[in-house]
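Render this sequence as a predicted structure.
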Amino acid sequence: MTTNAGSLHCPNCGAAADPSARRCPYCRARLATVSCPSCFALMFDGAAYCPHCGAARARTEAAGADLRCPACREALRRLDLGATPLLECEACDGVWVDADVFERLCADRSSQAAVLHRLGTRAVVETRGPVRYRPCLRCGKMMNRVNFGRVSGAVVDVCRSHGTFLDAGELHQIVSFIRAGGMERVRQLEIQELRDEQQRLRDAQRLGARASSGTPNAVTTSDTRALHEMLRALIGK
């Protein structure tokens, strides 16, 4: 079910507004917030149903959290989207999700264990230009910039111990990626990379054996066995 854009008006100036707009095009007042408890899409404040998936709006706000947004340093507000607790910035619309909440949210939809807080360093985004790192909401240390699932295109800020900060719309982007089978594509990519690495180590082992008159290289053999175990575990998921 969707909402008729013509029936929605900015609560600040009264101008007609699109139900997916984040700000009024005339007075720039805030209109859209994260309100869908199912796909976590932005919804116009007057919409009763999500225009993306049709789920009923389920947003409960609480008092301020006395915490500052990692992106713009403005105040964060606590809210519950269905059963999911979040912290949302009223200025830039960014969202903070605690580590355990984010992991549960991803696992519920993908039945995978390899979510952000368990990914290795290969998930860290490589950039050529300057990167603006943001401090963790809990410990204050600078977070890693991570492309969720390595191929989703949603680049978020992650503190492995405490949580994830997402810019406006990125939580919806991640959930849509998972629902479209994105985590399975990531798993297949990781399997192929491990197989390629196994082959590289086997080739290096053969060369080492020839150079030492038939004595295998112990380090290379150990590495090959470790990769074999990782591959077996990944395929078995």
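Summary. The CA atoms of residues 37 and 81 lie 5 Å apart. Confidence is low (pLDDT under 50) at residues 1-6, 110-124.
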